[in-house]
């Protein structure tokens, strides 16, 4: 097996014990990038000589007996909307096509401190606001399973690159499923942590304007990986207590001891979109596997998830409305169409222009939903939901027809409900149906990442390994 096919945990262990070298690992991944990236267009700003120089330094640190981080010598990609010093930071915009970040954002600095070697910047849509990954300056990213289907978005470059073996880990961020959905589309594991676990601090100068409240309160960074073990390692490497982040935490929370079996609530549908046959079958399979692993599984009706998904439309639409003229001015045609369809979907739920009272009441209602969900979950229950009500969408399905676009927004209720509630969630693959990967989502209470990752591991232990492609 070639080194680009190894998992991140295998690579880190091999480098640490000097079974393999970081230089050999980076050369193998660079060779894989050269082979498949011209087709998939997943990674940008790949600089082989810089990566090899970093690898040589990593090997020298091993030889010198220095203290090594959990990702020492492991190749990682970072996203074009996240600051990595002196590297491309266009956010998919033509007006910023050559922009370079002035410094490392906190999550990138944490990966660097963990010993990761950065191989490239992963592609994303303009403003990172679609479930697809195409833009004018950098082009379209393809799904290695089926080029006619989305690799997901907005972290679609990360998912395509990891699934194809370019890097074992990709950094992404998520405000509406932008980690979890690309992972599901490409047969990967993607975890969205509790808000605050991974610092959202950005390097000075890279964000000239403060983001709206929904961006501040909902957006998180996290990893996409080919295995649960890799996602777990990468997540806790990225976890960075940081009070510069207004939603940051002062210290990592301690694991909560579990008493008795863990309960799983299976939520199949919240009345927004009927799950596709393959999605429903995947839920049944995952539920059976969790039962075999000792979990107590019961099917639940949980309307609050549907209510949270509808609140996502209200609060995000009203938060971005003042920004819309500027976004349309510098965004691409896909931005214009996607945002138009987004506002049409929001208007169906909340009317054309909700007033300030509806907006304030929406934030107040959000707090109530968070409390009710936390009371339900406690520390020993997780939810099992679809990743999406549909298989991976056909390319550009969000901009080709308004009716189809509204169907997509409805199908993504598992993606949009979670950010509103601020809780962690992980998508994990179950298998392949009709040539496309299908996965499920596990949702936990606040700071129960270990709990949902353990449940994801129980599923992965019984599922076929799908990647690298």
TrEMBL record:
PANTHER family: FATTY-ACID AMIDE HYDROLASE, FATTY-ACID AMIDE HYDROLASE 2. It comes from the Bacteria. SUPFAM superfamilies: Amidase signature (AS) enzymes (SSF75304). This is Amidase family protein. Pfam families: Amidase. It comes from Nonomuraea monospora. Residues 24-453 form the Amidase domain. Gene3D superfamilies: Amidase signature (AS) domain.
């Amino acid at each position: 097996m070639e080194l680009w096919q190894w998992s991140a945990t295998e690579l880190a262990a091999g480098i640490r014990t000097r079974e393999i070298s970081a230089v050999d690992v980076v050369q193998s991944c660079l060779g894989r990038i050269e082979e498949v990236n011209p087709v998939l267009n997943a990674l940008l700003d790949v600089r082989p000589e810089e990566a090899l120089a970093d690898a040589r330094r990593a090997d020298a640190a091993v030889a010198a007996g220095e203290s090594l981080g959990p990702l020492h010598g492991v190749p990682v990609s970072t996203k074009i909307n996240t600051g990595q010093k002196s590297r491309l930071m266009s956010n998919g915009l033509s007006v910023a096509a050559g922009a370079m970040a002035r410094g490392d954002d906190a999550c990138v600095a944490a990966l660097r401190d963990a010993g990761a070697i950065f191989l490239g910047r992963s592609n994303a849509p303009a403003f990172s606001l679609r479930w697809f990954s195409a833009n004018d300056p950098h082009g379209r990213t393809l799904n290695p399973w089926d080029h006619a289907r989305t690799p997901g978005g907005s972290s679609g470059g990360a998912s395509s690159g990891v699934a194809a073996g370019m890097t074992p880990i990709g950094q992404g961020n998520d405000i509406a499923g932008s980690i979890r959905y690309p992972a599901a589309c490409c047969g990967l594991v993607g975890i969205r942590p509790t808000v605050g676990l991974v610092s959202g601090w950005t390097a000075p100068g890279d964000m000239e304007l403060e983001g709206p409240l929904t961006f501040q309160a909902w957006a998180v960074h996290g990893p996409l990986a080919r295995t649960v073990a890799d996602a777990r390692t990468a997540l806790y490497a990225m976890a960075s207590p940081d009070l510069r982040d207004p939603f940051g935490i002062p210290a990592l929370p301690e694991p909560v001891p579990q008493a008795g079996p863990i309960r799983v609530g299976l939520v199949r549908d919240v009345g927004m979109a009927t799950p596709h046959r393959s999605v429903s079958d995947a839920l049944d399979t995952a539920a059976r596997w969790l039962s075999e692993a000792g979990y107590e599984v019961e099917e639940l009706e949980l309307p609050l998830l549907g209510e949270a998904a509808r609140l996502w439309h209200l609060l995000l639409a009203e938060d971005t409305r003042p920004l819309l003229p500027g976004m349309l001015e510098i965004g691409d045609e896909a931005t214009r169409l996607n945002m138009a369809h987004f506002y049409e979907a929001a208007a169906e739920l909340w009317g054309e222009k909700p007033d300030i009272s509806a907006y304030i009441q929406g934030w107040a209602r959000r707090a109530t939903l968070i409390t009710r969900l936390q009371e339900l979950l406690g520390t020993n229950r997780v939810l099992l939901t679809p990743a999406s009500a549909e298989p991976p969408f056909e390319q550009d399905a969000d901009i080709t027809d308004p009716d189809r676009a509204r169907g997509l927004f409805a199908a993504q209720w598992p993606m949009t409900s979670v950010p509103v509630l601020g809780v962690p969630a992980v998508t994990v693959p179950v298998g392949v149906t009709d040539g496309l990967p299908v996965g499920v989502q596990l949702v936990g209470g606040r700071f129960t990442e270990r709990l949902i990752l353990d449940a994801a591991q129980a599923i992965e232990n019984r599922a076929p390994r799908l990647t690298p492609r």
